[in-house]
Amino acid sequence: MMRLLRRTGTVLALLAELLACASALQAQLKSNVAAVNLNALLNSSLTVAAAPGLVNFALAPNGVASGSSTITITTSWVLPASAGNVTLYAFFNSAAVALANGAGNNIPSSKVRGSVNGGPFTPFTGSSPFAVGSSITVFKDSVANTQGNNNRDDLLNLQIDTTGLGLPPGTYTGLLRIQAQAI
Question: I need a surface site. Which of 29, 93, 99, 180 has the fewest CB within 10 A?
Answer without folding.
Answer: 29
